[in-house]
Structures are given as structure tokens and as C-alpha cells.
Specification:
By secondary structure, the protein is mainly alpha-helical. It is built from two helices and no strands. It has one domain.
Length: 73
């Protein structure tokens, strides 16, 4: 996904050299692409963190149950 954002940024930079395009507008879109990339990464990392925390909790409960069972013989 990040490579896709990077490809869009490279393409916008290449387009900025065309006289028909306003460099300020192209720069604005470059900044929007960077912001969107960062926001998407932030969202995905947070969602992944939530999933991993829940998984860790489930695995902890299983481990503790197994340890109690082992202790009881």
C-alpha cells in the first residue's frame, strides 16, 4: 500500500514539470497524498494493535488454564 502512495507521489512530482499544471496545486496534492498515507498507516496500525491485544488476551487465558491444569495434575 505504501508503495502505491509512493508511486502516486512520484507521478505527481513528474507532472509538476508540465507548464499546463499549477505547481502549487500539484504540491497541495502531494501533501494530501502524504497525509492520506500517514492517516491510513495510523488507522491500520491501531486496528492491528487492537487485534493483537485481543489475541494476546485469549492466549494468556489459555496458558493460565493450562498451567492450572498442569499444577492440579
Amino acid at each position: 500500500m505504501n508503495e502505491g502512495y509512493e508511486q502516486a507521489r512520484r507521478s505527481l512530482k513528474a507532472l509538476a514539470s508540465h507548464a499546463a499544471l499549477d505547481r502549487g496545486e500539484v504540491r497541495r496534492f502531494l501533501e494530501l497524498a502524504a497525509e492520506c498515507c500517514a492517516a491510513t498507516n495510523s488507522y491500520l496500525c491501531e486496528a492491528l494493535g487492537d487485534c493483537e491485544t485481543k489475541k494476546a488476551g485469549r492466549l494468556f487465558v489459555r496458558r493460565k488454564a493450562r498451567e492450572r491444569q498442569d499444577e492440579q495434575g
